[in-house]
Each structure stands twice: as structure tokens, then as C-alpha cells.
């Protein structure tokens, strides 16, 4: 690694609105630089998580070190692929701290979208060089000239700086690498100073402990060095250092300006937290500023389905939050659900992805309670907006077809399904992003949901006074649809204090699992009864009413439909 002087290193990130082609461009860059073989099967190579492959979106930033020869000089290009969805912008801002420049990818058909603007400003504020890349020029409806004009107007970047490519076909991708070398400056670092390494990402490996992704701002780190975590003040010996190419490749040493991974026998997830600074034992240094902690926007309670799983779930949450440090965790307990946690997420997709990762990567199954928000604000468009108590702040025409609207919103009006409604009202053309605008006073009430007079803790919500009736009615209807009939009648009620504002009734019924089982085979009957008993474990008793987990989920997901 010493063969790469600082002036031959470029650290850059790819940022874009969701689906504009970051991961596809990353695949082509990996191929061009020989990091992966050129085959038709390279699809989003850096999206390694199962949840990313299933959903086709990036949720986790990934690093790859690429070697590239240009005019006789060998360059080391460290590429960080970042997520596009608004819920994961914390990943983007962290990744940018290890970079000097970005490729801002814009779809040649869709043009500038909300997340393009938000990500541009993250890069701009971090004073990074921005290379605009107009992607998907192969599409029939592509209009790169229009997008160039948008970029000039909104970001003040001359249109001749835009590079037009098709990441899918590989058209003109080589000139992106040329631009990275020409337009992004090498990192400003000092190799002669003592080691100062920023932990910008971290994962937990069952066998090797914590694997920290580091960016070296000063000095050198070698296998065998004694290093200290500025955060915990604990000392470790470096077992392994290396680069990600994109798989781990150990290298004995890493030098200032380089980005790679480091393993130092940290066995506990509280070690090597994201944002930590590592330095040599014999040369303490001033820690790097680290990262602003993420501001959670959506809160939900999380409980093990079975309390005996508490410790396993605790350890799974700890390991996953090491990798996703934007989730906040506080212990909590509920009369109904036992011991659990109150988790803070950056949005609903983030919450779903976290839940899915817990299930897929740690085999955990959990109950999530109604998501709530710490009342804040947002931006976007039209009729939809009035119904959601929004106040317009700003309007700017991006070109003759596109307008950027800024609104102040109560956060709880948009966290759940605003995005979907916006997409369907605009036939998919509108896009949306938000940032926190502080707390505002509002007329809110606490609404209880009761089953035969017993409050269902999980469904207690805070709603705006004017919407209480509608929300209460929806929840009652949803519950009615998803509650299995029981031997007695069930009254489902929504109440504010002692005032009932909505009611539904589930009629009595008895489910006889043996109904279709004529005649004798006792083992078959036992099997059916056993399965019924197992099913009941997934039920939660409220008063004498059994509520299946699915009923909660159904209500949680639909509560803000109104
Ligand atoms: N026609 C065409 N399609 C492309 C091109 N580049 C990407 N795509 C397609 O656009 C879709 C999204 O591409 P991705 O690379 O996953 O987009 P992304 O920006 O990484 O998306 P997130 O990671 O979810 O933010 C995929 O179906 C790609 O095959 C291109 O140059 N031309």
C-alpha cells in the first residue's frame, strides 16, 4: 500500500435519488478496474445484505478500493456506494466524511428529484467536489440536455461539467473515472504525523469480533500495532488490516489517505463505535470530531414474542445497532408485552428494514408497537398537503415541467403513508425529502383503544383533535377485520378519556379445528390440536380476548391512512 502516494489517491462516493443507478454505476466501475470479472451477472454487487437484494435498494453504504491506471500512473480509488432512500441519509452523511468528492448521479429521464437535492446539499456543505453524472441515456425517453439545464439552474454547476452515461450498457463510464482523477482532489493528510483513524462504519462478525471500516487521516497503521480507542480508552493489538476490493484483502499496513478495514480483537459490540477515533498507544492524539448523532423520527416499542427470547433479542439488537448506529435504543417495559425496548428510527422504511434484518440476520421475531413521532415538520405538494395540516414555505421552478415546493408539516402526518399517497396522486412523478424543523404546539389528544372495556396498551396513540374520530374509526374497523371471532361478542372502542368516539362489534363464534375430521384417527386429531395450541402462543391476551400478532401489525400499518 506504500506504493500509493497521497496524490494518487481519490476517495469518493456515489450519491443519487433512489433508483437513479448508483449501484449499477458502481458495478461498472468495479468491472472497469478489474475488481470483479465482467459478466452479465454483476447486479448491484455492493448490495450484500439479503434485505437489499430482496427489496432491490441499498440500505447500507459499502466501500470498495479500486486500482486504476491512468497515463502511466497507478491510482487507488476508494469508492463508497450509498443508499438513496430518505430514511438512510444518515449513512450518506457519514460516508461523505471519508471522501473528498462525489459522483452525483441523475436519471436522464426523471431529472432532479428530491433526494438528488438533499444529497447534493450534504456534499456541498461538506465542501466536496461534485461531479454530475447523467445516467440512463440509453432510455427512449432520456432527455440529458434538459437534465443538464436543471443541474445548472438548481446546483449552479456549468452544464459542460455533466458526464452523460449509461451505467447499464457501460457507455462512457470510463470518462467518469477520468473525471474522478482530474476533478476530485487527493485527501489532505499527513503520513508523518502519528496515527489518527476515523471509524466510519462497523460490523460485528461472530468469529472475528468487531470489523471497523476506517479512514486514515494521519499516520500509518500496521499489523501488530498497539492502538487505543479514543471513545473507550481501551488498548488493542491490531490483528489484521486491509482494503475492501470489494471483499476483504489484508495488506499488513494502511497509510494516511487510504480507506480500509481493521480487526483488533474487539469482542464486544460497544467497542469501535461508529465515529470513534483510533490512535497509537504511544502517541495519543486529539480525536476527530466524529458524527452528529442521528435524529430519530419514528419511535416504536419492540418486544420479544416470547419473553424467554429476551436475552437473544437483546444481543441481536446490540449487534445490529453497531452496524446501523442511527437506531436509538432505550429499555422499556409494557404491562402487556413484558420487557422490551423503545427504538428510534429515521423513518418507516428504516423501521421495516431493521425489523427484517433482525429476522434474517439474527433469526429473531418481535412485536413492534404503534410507531409514534416526536412532533416535528416537513416539505412537499398539493391537496394532499392541506389535509395534512401543512404550511407552504417556498416554491421554485426547476424547469417548465417541474417545481420544488417546501412545506412545513407535522411530522406524524407524513411518516407513514404520505410518500405512497404522493406517488399515486402524482402518478409517480413527484418525489419527496424532509428535514427536521423543530417542535410546534398543536392540539393533540391521547386516544385509547378498548376491547370489551380493557385498554390495549400497544394501540394507544396521540392524534390531532380534528382527526381523532377518523383515525379511531379506522383502527376499530381494521381490528374488526383482523380479530378472530371468539366464543363471546367483542366490543372494539376508541376513546378519548371517558368519551367513546368510535365502536365496532365482532360477533361470537367458535372455531372447531376438528370439524372436518370425521371418524377415528386420534393422532391426526392430536396434531391439529397441537398446532392450534402453538398458534395460541402467538396470541396476546387482553382481558379474556386473544389478539393475534397479525392484528397488531395490520392496525399499526394502517393507522395513519387518515
Ligand atoms: N436503462 C437503464 N437502466 C439503468 C441504468 N442504470 C441503472 N439502471 C436500472 O435502474 C434501476 C435502479 O438501479 P440501481 O443501480 O439499483 O439504483 P440505485 O440508485 O443504486 O438504487 P438504490 O440503491 O435503491 O438507491 C435498475 O433496474 C437498473 O438496472 C442505465 O444506464 N440504463
From TrEMBL:
Molecular function, one GO term: GTPase activity
Coarse class of the primary localization is: mitochondrion
Which Pfam families would you find in this protein's record? EFG_C (PF00679), GTP_EFTU (PF00009), GTP_EFTU_D2 (PF03144), LepA_C (PF06421)
* Domain named Tr-type G: residues: 7-188
User: Any one cellular component term from GO for this entry?
Assistant: mitochondrial inner membrane
What keywords sit in the KW lines? GTP-binding, Hydrolase, Membrane, Mitochondrion, Mitochondrion inner membrane, Nucleotide-binding, Protein biosynthesis
**Which residues are listed for GTP binding in this entry?**
16-23, 81-85, 135-138
Q: How does it sit in the membrane?
A: Peripheral membrane protein
What biological process terms from GO does the record include? positive regulation of translation; translation
Q: Which CDD domains match?
A: EF4_II (cd03699), EF4_III (cd16260), LepA (cd01890), lepA_C (cd03709)
Q: Where in the cell is it found?
A: Mitochondrion inner membrane
Gene3D superfamilies the UniProt entry points to: 3.30.70.240, Elongation factor 4, C-terminal domain, Elongation Factor G (Translational Gtpase), domain 3, P-loop containing nucleotide triphosphate hydrolases, Translation factors
Q: Which domain of life is it from?
A: Eukaryota
- Chain's role: Promotes mitochondrial protein synthesis. May act as a fidelity factor of the translation reaction, by catalyzing a one-codon backward translocation of tRNAs on improperly translocated ribosomes. Binds to mitochondrial ribosomes in a GTP-dependent manner.
Q: Which family does it belong to?
A: Belongs to the TRAFAC class translation factor GTPase superfamily. Classic translation factor GTPase family. LepA subfamily. Belongs to the GTP-binding elongation factor family. LepA subfamily.
Name of the protein described by the UniProt record:
GTP binding elongation factor GUF1
User: Taxonomic classification, please?
Assistant: Eukaryota, Metazoa, Chordata, Craniata, Vertebrata
Q: Which gene encodes it?
A: GUF1
Amino acid at each position: 500500500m506504500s506504493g500509493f502516494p497521497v496524490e494518487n489517491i481519490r476517495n469518493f462516493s456515489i450519491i443519487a435519488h433512489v433508483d437513479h443507478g448508483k449501484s449499477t454505476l458502481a458495478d461498472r466501475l468495479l468491472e472497469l478496474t478489474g475488481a470483479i470479472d465482467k459478466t452479465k451477472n454483476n447486479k448491484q454487487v455492493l448490495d450484500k445484505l439479503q434485505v437489499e437484494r430482496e427489496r432491490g435498494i441499498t440500505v447500507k453504504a459499502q466501500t470498495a478500493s479500486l486500482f486504476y491506471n491512468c497515463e502511466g500512473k497507478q491510482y487507488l480509488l476508494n469508492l463508497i456506494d450509498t443508499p438513496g432512500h430518505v430514511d438512510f441519509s444518515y449513512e450518506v452523511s457519514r460516508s461523505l466524511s471519508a471522501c473528498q468528492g462525489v459522483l452525483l448521479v441523475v436519471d436522464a429521464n426523471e431529472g432532479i428529484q428530491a433526494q438528488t437535492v438533499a444529497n447534493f446539499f450534504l456534499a456541498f456543505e461538506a465542501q466536496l467536489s461534485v461531479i454530475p453524472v447523467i445516467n440512463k441515456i440509453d432510455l427512449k425517453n432520456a432527455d440529458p440536455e434538459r437534465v443538464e439545464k436543471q443541474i445548472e439552474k438548481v446546483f449552479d454547476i456549468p452544464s459542460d461539467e455533466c458526464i452523460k452515461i449509461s451505467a447499464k450498457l457501460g457507455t462512457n463510464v470510463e470518462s467518469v473515472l477520468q473525471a474522478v482523477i482530474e476533478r476530485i482532489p487527493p485527501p489532505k493528510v499527513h503520513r508523518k504525523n502519528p496515527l489518527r483513524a476515523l471509524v466510519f462504519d462497523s460490523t460485528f462478525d461472530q468469529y472475528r469480533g468487531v470489523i471497523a471500516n476506517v479512514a486514515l487521516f494521519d499516520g500509518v497503521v500496521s499489523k501488530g500495532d498497539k492502538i487505543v480507542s479514543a471513545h473507550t480508552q481501551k488498548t488493542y493489538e491490531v490483528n489484521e488490516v486491509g482494503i475492501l476490493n470489494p471483499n476483504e484483502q489484508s495488506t499488513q499496513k494502511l497509510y494516511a489517505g487510504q480507506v480500509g478495514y481493521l480487526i483488533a480483537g474487539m469482542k464486544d459490540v460497544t467497542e469501535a463505535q461508529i465515529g470513534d477515533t483510533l490512535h497509537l498507544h504511544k502517541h495519543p492524539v486529539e480525536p476527530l470530531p466524529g458524527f452528529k448523532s442521528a435524529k430519530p423520527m419514528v419511535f416504536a416499542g419492540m418486544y420479544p414474542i416470547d419473553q424467554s427470547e429476551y436475552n437473544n433479542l437483546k444481543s441481536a439488537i446490540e449487534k445490529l445497532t453497531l452496524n446501523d448506529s442511527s437506531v436509538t435504543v432505550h429499555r422499556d417495559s409494557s404491562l402487556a408485552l413484558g420487557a422490551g425496548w423503545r427504538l428510534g428510527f429515521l423513518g418507516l422504511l428504516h423501521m421495516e428494514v431493521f425489523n427484517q434484518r433482525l429476522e434474517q440476520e439474527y433469526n429473531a421475531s418481535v412485536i413492534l408497537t404503534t410507531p409514534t413521532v416526536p412532533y416535528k415538520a416537513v416539505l412537499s405538494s398539493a391537496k394532499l398537503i392541506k389535509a395534512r395540516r401543512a404550511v407552504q414555505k417556498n416554491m421554485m421552478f426547476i424547469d417548465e415541467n417541474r417545481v420544488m415546493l417546501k412545506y412545513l408539516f407535522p411530522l406524524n402526518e407524513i411518516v407513514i403513508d404520505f410518500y405512497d399517497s404522493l406517488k399515486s396522486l402524482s402518478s409517480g412523478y413527484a418525489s419527496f425529502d424532509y428535514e427536521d424543523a423543530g417542535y410546534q404546539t398543536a392540539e393533540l389528544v391521547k386516544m385509547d383503544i378498548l376491547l370489551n372495556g380493557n385498554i390495549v396498551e400497544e394501540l394507544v396513540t396521540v392524534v390531532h383533535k380534528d382527526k381523532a374520530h377518523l383515525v379511531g374509526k379506522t383502527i376499530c374497523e381494521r381490528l374488526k377485520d383482523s380479530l378472530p371471532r371468539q366464543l363471546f361478542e367483542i366490543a372494539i372502542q376508541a376513546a378519548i378519556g371517558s368519551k367513546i368516539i368510535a365502536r365496532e362489534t365482532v360477533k361470537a363464534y367458535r372455531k372447531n379445528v376438528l370439524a372436518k375430521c370425521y371418524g377415528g384417527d386420534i393422532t391426526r386429531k392430536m396434531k391439529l390440536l397441537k398446532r392450534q395450541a402453538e398458534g395460541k402462543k402467538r396470541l396476546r391476551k387482553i382481558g379474556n380476548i386473544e389478539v393475534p400478532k397479525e392484528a397488531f401489525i395490520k392496525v399499526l400499518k394502517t393507522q395513519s391512512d387518515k
